[in-house]
Amino acid sequence: MEKNQMSVSRRNFLKTTAATVAVGLAVPPWLAKMVWAEGDTFNNTSAPGGMRTLVVVQLTGGNDGLNTVVPYSQDEYRRNRPTLALPDNQILHLTDGIGLHPAMTGMKALYDSKQLAIVQGVGYPNPNRSHFRSMEIWQTAEPEKLGTEGWVGRYLDAIRSGRTSPLTGINIGNEANEALQSAHAAVPTIQGLANFGFVFPHTGDGDARTAALRRIQMTDTSTPYGPLFQQTAQDTYESADKIRAGIRNYHSTVQYPNGGFGKGLQEVASLIAADLGTRVFYVSFGGGSFDTHTNQARRHVQLLSQLSDGLAAFQTDLEGMGKADQVVTVCFSEFGRRVHENAGGGTDHGTASEMFIVGKPVKGGLYGQYPSLSDLDQGDLKFTTDFRAVYATLIDRWLGSNSETVLGSRYEDLKFV
Q1: Element (H, E) at 247
Q2: Residues ≥6 apart with Cβ < 8 Å to 84
């Protein structure tokens, strides 16, 4: 290929792939980033039997923490929620004052087996009640400014020392996630494993993109960037082949709950079984479903049942494949709900809530202080634990990196892992 042809093909390829969605794989951001991430690879941090992995679960919409981890012994709880307060005899008691929603039997079993840590009162200073902005804050870990990179992405950048692997982080879902954005790390978004592959649509535009990729793969290594583009295309196809080969070897009888969340967790389990070298998986649950402004009692029981049953099934699956020592899962939502229920049988946007950390390596129990229900900030809970302390503990203690490098400051070590 002549130099000018190679240059045009590369430019057109990077431009046209920006709108491309493959069958099972959203390619553009991470592949374009791979082109410029020359000379980057990732280090490994080992756990018993293999490499440590973090699974991040995002509960989208703002989960009602008060009816998830319930302060059932506090009079203010029942006074503020005359219809939504859960009956004492149905709550799954953890202590004399705190319990789980009755739909969360799977997570109660994990708590009893010391595999569930609950961090109470999690939030950040000057909380924002906008879904978009608050989720952005959680994903970038930068409450004070508009961040351009995600906390997971910065972690993946921090551990590189050589050429980037496109499988070091994987996002499960229909769209890219800001938590995974970074300067160097390359993170694919997988939209479903059933028909996974690096495939463009069979249209004129899709065929042109496929041809461009093939030309890049066959680039003359004597041209500028030739070896890099050739290796990039080769890595792209090889990564897809590794995923397909890996998931073919996954066999499990564990029953996950129906729906997108259960399916997403099972796909993560199959990718963990494939030993692809992935350090972080990111899974979103809810699609805004946790935004329970009306009819919360009916909707919340369904959501929490799927969450609890899904996490319990995932842990059972990890045990069966001998990977339970290698995986920790963290769950968060962008904010909690207000203390007082509204007239529509629901709750409006609030502030502090809880985070769940699940896994065999976890030191189960309650962490942090449950917020006061009487000392409120304009009707909202005051946070008692900065969410960045949870991230920092995971980065330092589980992923084996330096949280100050990733987060920009030092935060409390919560010692739940």
Answers
A1: helix 226-248
A2: 67, 296, 297, 341, 345, 346, 347
Residue 26 has phi, psi (to 5 degrees) of: -90, 110
Q: Indicate the pTM of the whole model.
A: 0.85
| 394: three-class secondary structure by DSSP | helix
Q: Which domain holds residue 376?
A: 24-198+256-407
Number of domains in the chain: 1
* pLDDT score of 15: 37
Report pLDDT digits (tens) over 71-98: 999 999 999 999 999 999 999 999 999 9
d(CA 50, CA 246): 16
Interatomic CA distance for residues 326 and 250, integer angstroms:
17
Here the CATH number for the domain that contains residue 336 is: 3.40.720
Smallest Cα–Cα separation from 56: which of 155, 192, 161? 155
Helices (H), 295-337: 296-320
Calpha distance 200→215 (Å, rounded): 15
Query: How many Cβ atoms from other residues are within 10 Å of residue 162's Cβ?
Result: 10
Orientation of helix 226-248 relative to helix 260-273, angle to 10°: 110
Q: Specify the amino acid at residue 235.
A: D
pLDDT for position 36: 36
Mean pLDDT for the chain?
85
More confident residue, 38 or 295: 295
Residue 69: is its pLDDT beyond 90?
Answer: yes
